[in-house]
Description:
The structure holds 2 protein chains of 2 kinds. Chain A is mostly helical. Chain A is about 65% helix and about 0% strand. By secondary structure, chain B is of the alpha/beta class. Chain B has a 6-stranded mixed beta sheet with strand order 6-7-8-3-9-10, sandwiched between helices. A 4-stranded antiparallel beta sheet of chain B has the order 2-1-4-5, sandwiched between helices. Classes of the chains: A mainly alpha, B alpha/beta. Chains A and B meet through α11 and α12 of A and α3, β6, α4 and α6 of B.
Amino acid sequence: MTVTHSTFIRRSLVEPEPPPIARQGSLIFTRGRLLDRPTNIALTALSAMIIVLLGWPTVRFLFIDAVWDGASRVDCLSETLGREVGACWPFIKAKLPQLMYGFYPESERWRVDVTYAIGIMLLVPLLIPRVPGKAPNAILFFAVFPVIGFFLLVGGVLGLPHVETRLWGGLLITLVISFAGIIFSLPLGVVLALGRRSQLPILRALCIAFIELWRGIPLITVLFFATYMLPFFLPENWRIDPLLRVLIGVVLFAGAYMAEVVRGGLQAIPRGQFEGAMALGLGYWRMTGLVVLPQALRLVIPGIVNSFISLFKDTSLVLIVAMFDLLGQLRAAFADPTWAAPTTLLTGFAFAGLLYFAVSFGMSRYALFMERRLSSRALHTS
Amino acid sequence: MTASEQSIRSKTALGATAADSVRTEAAIEIAGLNKWFGSFHVLRDVDLRVMRGERIVICGPSGSGKSTLLRCINRLEDWQRGRVVVDGVELSADVKRIDKVRREVGMVFQQFNLFPHLTALDNCTLAPIWVRNMPRKEAEDLARRQLARVRIPEQAEKYPAQLSGGQQQRVAIARALCMQPKIMLFDEPTSALDPEMVKEVLDSMVALALDGMTMLVVSHEMGFAREVANRMILMDAGQIIEANEPNEFFAHPQHERTKLFLSQILR
């Protein structure tokens, strides 16, 4: 056996080359990923079958067999049309004002539209990262807009007639509760999460008790309590608006959940970040506001948005306390004998489903976009 | 001189060494410092007096309490017995005093502890703006000067994750310097770095030493220690074992523990 003593000295360095051209194209994708092995071919076929079996009837119901024009139930009956009938869209068209505004007086509905318009005008530039002036924009949206919205919708000032909240309904109620829930539950959650991690024993105990109490009861119970029980505990002349009571209940409930989400983020911040901030002389509030929360909240964006989405959908529970949100109005509309056709029920729920889905999916995608954008700076290195 | 100050002197006689080359006011006075982590006695009767402009390198085996001692100086750690006076302010549980001391004492950590959501420049301007209430423009000028001082002015707009370990540690040094501290503490500043990056960080620290900064450095970089230290300290089991002027410390260690330690790390 010979041992070769090998010495190696590089004479010239290898220059970097561009990578080999990737094989792409739909044909290569199909062959390589979908049809490359017998099991994959079977799975592809099965998936395609499921998509067709579920998708085709949906498309037929929503579009092909759907009725687009009509004045009453008669236009949506298969007896009248002599064919199979899908969605009865004239029903939605006829009921749309109710679904949007509830019993908000017709002459005053422009106020709702104006509120929406202001909200959208403030929200859109806030969501687009390139648009400058985020700080004043955020103040306008989160602090000024709720006040303007309140006075516009409630009225009683500047010659606007007062509109009682029991007349509000439909999408308006859904959006008001969701918006209030979202913008107030996050700060409440942050405060509770910080309190729960506080060094002060009484404050910490209070926060834990609060969070656990609200997490321990179902939202329906909260709504019931706020609507029917609370008035018994308050003095006679202390009449709080029913919608406001529900709003407070929803905010406290969502805030408790948000607190746990935020706490998860706070716990993920390494000790070194606190020490680095403290060593610079930043006190508790500056350390929390400038160093800890910006990182913690970024980490829990998925959890925060998850809470927002579930809050948005949970607003439909207010039906239980006789508030007619989008779904509530829809169910009221089903009772109208003018539109009692076999497919109105499905049409109504399809419409509501699409609306809820559009909003929830939008939130989810936007959160994903923000997450990618923020994590492109790769938060932690070590 | 008060009685307690005299007792510090008589107990340790640390103030006498290398004191000629530095001004004679004490920047830091530590007396009878005792600290326990649970039942573990991590600092045991530590007395130390650091003069203005003095540069001390502390070495010792891991778990000897050297980092803990350093962290007591800006009260990142509290203690059960003893006193620490920094720049004339005695540290206690009083938050105002702690913040006052922290404003004057810069600290550099082993793991850098840069804020990952801020650029190098914003890392540097954060404390001047929010603690010193400096106008943003002025803070940015200051930050750029300090980044130039550690020789990375071109990295100002980058995020920590985009920088090498050595660059990150130099940003951390610049960040501490932006508070224009009177004292700098370095807690194993090169231990987490790749070997090729150690020198660039040490160079920045040498430059700082040449500018007359009061420095306490926990480090095992003996070359650095020989070059800049006025005084070497060996700690073991929570106590100062030996303190001496570097040439003597390396050439003629007195205590058996020091001899053993040096034989372990110097080959």
